[in-house]
Amino acid sequence: MDNPSSGVSYKRADASYFEKRGLSRYAGVWSLWALGVGAVISGHFSGWNLGFATGGWGGMLAAGVIIAIMYLGLTFSIAEMSPALPHTGAAYSFARTAMGPWGGFLTGLCENVEYVLTPAVIVTFITAYVNSILGLDPAYSPLVWVVFYVLFLALNIFGLELSFKVTLVITLVSLGVLVFFWISAIPAMDFSRWALNIGVGPDGVPMELPEGNGPWFPFGISGVLATLPFAVWLFLAIEQLPLAAEESVDPKRDMPKGIILGMITLMISAFMIVLLNPSLPGVGAFHLGTALEPLLDGFKAVYGDGGVVLLGLVALTGLIASFHTILYAQGRQIYSLSRAGYFPTVLSVTHARYKTPHVAMITGAIVGLAVMMAIWFALGAEAGGSIIGSVLLNMAVFGAMFSYIMQAISFILLRRKLPGIERPFRSPLGIPGAVLTIIIAVVTLLYQVQDPNFTKGVLWVALWFAAAIAYFAVIGRHRLILSPEEEFALDHQEKARAALKVQPAE
């Protein structure tokens, strides 16, 4: 079956094709909430703090507010689109319906970069904590990466119910750890002395102010804007929730609730951690600007070094929660593009017993590890995890920003092209919220270019984009499958054309 207007060809797969790619339903509202919050929560344990080096405390807070506004526009948009198009494809599905096969593929490709590389960033931070706890030589870091990938791939593969139960438990534990930290930190905080201990040196780089009491915005407005990519880490991956649509018991009812509850939870947590972590004696914003284990440093400031192993294990929980849940998202994202033929269809085969996309998850993990290893050996072990983490973070954020722009455009186009489709939830921010998301995402991308580690990362992303687009142009677009996402898009495309034909003349 050809679609000349899009330059693609379809085939209708038989029942056995989808039987080999079956999923099962389990998730309710709280499972979805845990999936969204758990995916992001590691960003409150590590990563976000690198923004102190570019914006100071005030710059980090302002950037966090701007990025929160962007994510509100995005999450309200996907809270409307996901129950209206309740398919595992999520971002790809939204863009496919709004912009055709090429728009769907490019959006899915951007999201693929995010979900393959974000676990790699998180495992870098996990390794920093493990090295600190056990006193391991950083030269063994690649071994730690492999151990964590294998362990959490197994948890994700051997049963959907197990995966969601683990997600709920470790998300609740992670939030409990953060609340415990907030309660512990409030009596010890000295905001002016420590959170405001960054100044600008003669060479324009951050310098530590021994007495604190520095400016809120040491690098001005440009510092705020340069900090936007790091503030993204406070919310990155909340948008993965729609990937669970075909594993949700009632996606039309539960998906919007899970997304909105998750976003509210994350905004509260983000403000508390940005306020308290740098305000502790001996920690400070200047130190956190290069720290890989900021929450552990915070616990040490309150409780000392005596219980470093216990404190380190406690601080690991959030990183583990996000690593586990984003591996889940990675598998579903690759699975959906493969099931529809955009990626090789073998990647979407699910486990015969557990009905989980094990081939997609293993393949995504291998690619993520390969990128990490390549950067590790290219830069040398002596470069340290902070550079590798920063390079990977830039790559993940780069993919995410393009994905957000495409999803916001999809929202606007769906409002205009398909006003009549059932929308169990409507975004209160509407099209203006989506436009604001696009503007902030574009500005974030522009300032990301200024990060010296950006070019190291974006080159890899560009190569992956080039290879994937070439595959789709030559092979993939001629082998598309009428998956649920594709059938929905084609069906509504035909209805829209029919409606135009019967419109009365002016």
From TrEMBL:
Task: Tell me the superkingdom of the source.
Answer: Bacteria
- Identify the InterPro entries for this entry: AA/rel_permease1 (IPR002293), APC_superfamily (IPR050367)
Name the residues that span the membrane: 26-45, 57-79, 115-134, 140-159, 166-186, 216-238, 259-288, 308-329, 359-379, 391-414, 426-446, 458-475
Alphabetically sorted, this entry's keywords are: Cell membrane, Membrane, Transmembrane, Transmembrane helix
GO CC terms for this protein? plasma membrane
A Pfam match: AA_permease_2
Q: How does it sit in the membrane?
A: Multi-pass membrane protein
Task: Give GO terms: molecular function aspect only.
Answer: transmembrane transporter activity
Query: Which compartments is it annotated to reside in?
Result: Cell membrane
According to UniProt, the name of this protein is Amino acid ABC transporter permease
